[in-house]
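PROTEIN–LIGAND DATA SHEET

This sheet pairs a single protein chain with one bound small molecule, flavin-adenine dinucleotide, given as SMILES. Inputs appear in the order they were entered. The predicted three-dimensional arrangement of chain and ligand is reported afterwards as a token string under its own label.
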Amino acid sequence: MSAMPRVIVMGGSVGGLTTALVLRDTGCDVRVFERSSSALQARGAGIAALDATLRYLVERGGYQPADVCSATGWIRFLNRDGSLRHEQRHRYRFSSWNTIYRSLLRLFGAGRYLLGHEVVDFGQTGDTVCVTLADGSRASADLLVCADGVSSIGRGKLIPEVAPSYAGYVAWRGTVPERSLSPATRKAYEDAIIYQVLTDSHILVYPIPGLDGSLAAGDRLINMVWYVNVAAGDDLDRLMTGRDGIRRAVSLPPGAATDEAVTSMRRQAEAVFAPPVAEVVTSVAEPFVQAVYDIEVPRMAHGRVCLVGDAAFAVRPHAAAGTAKAADDGWALGEELQAAGGNVPAALAAWERRQLLVGQQLLDRTREIGDSSQFNGTFRPGDPRLIFGLHEPGH
Ligand SMILES: Cc1cc2nc3c(=O)[nH]c(=O)nc-3n(C[C@H](O)[C@H](O)[C@H](O)COP(=O)(O)OP(=O)(O)OC[C@H]3O[C@@H](n4cnc5c(N)ncnc54)[C@H](O)[C@@H]3O)c2cc1C
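PREDICTION REPORTED AS:
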């Protein structure tokens, strides 16, 4: 019998899938329980892809970064009239949540990736974790990895005293087919991520793969993320209440924002942005909204259950390191399980010491950047702290 544990991973997004793949490689018997009943679909979200996000695909999956990422060689900041405020050479890779997810899932295979498996409860008895699913069925394992995202029930059960803290602003996000943009605007994004800094706000816009993963010029999408302050209370409630009347806590999916909110956002974009930025923002057919939260946990493991990715620390997006942190949690868990010869409590104790530090430092960094943009007026083009990175800017 294998010394390596039987593992259930709750949540099959980037963090859950990377963890599942790494643990399977160490000899664990791994199943992924994903709540969604169909393969997770285009979330319409572009992501800056750091090395840790791509690590499994590249080191073990036979991928080159260029198979799944677009790349840019410049960071440019524009003024309102479109003139250049600042530029610097810096190479970034960009992908989409969709492209990374699909590629990881292809490597894991569908056999043990179980859709429609929503975990509603779990408990630990002796050396076993027993999980209850929404249909009432049960499953057991030696280790439960909660990779169930920002609204994690794993966190809620293990550390109920931790509550998400609203950062005071939201991100308007969305994509536009590159082909649909004017030649001048397309040229602006050919080899650059474009920023524009406003009073108490900033936007970033960059090219990502097309929905089918295509990286050919013209087939790509141009992705925007615009950080806008929205006061907690009535203003936030109004924005996060969709056309269906439902108030979402974290994200309002594409197509759900009210016409009033979208029209007001587009009007403001026309008034404040440089032409290549305004054209993208006003052309997004179905912009979506994500409220920005800080989540800080004092522990990431308890007995035979652990929290990875956004289920543990959820950090503001300014280091573009959310998926990288989730993947790094998974790699570190694999290393510690191997070092402990499959002894789950010993591995989790060592793992928690390492990953608490990674999460806390990233949270502190992203909080500082976010506050400098949205509240303190100290967000400066060219500031080296703005370079994306998991452990520090650039790394
Ligand atoms: C505005 C914005 C911009 C961002 N930009 C970037 C970027 O450029 N680069 C980057 O790396 N990151 C970025 N992020 C962060 C990134 O999206 C997250 O950090 C990342 O998706 C976290 O991955 P995860 O696997 O931990 O959780 P998630 O991706 O949230 O996945 C959780 C999964 O768990 C499933 N699930 C939930 N509950 C249950 C349950 N009870 N049972 C079973 N399954 C369940 C869900 O269906 C989902 O599939 C950004 C985030 C925001 C808000």
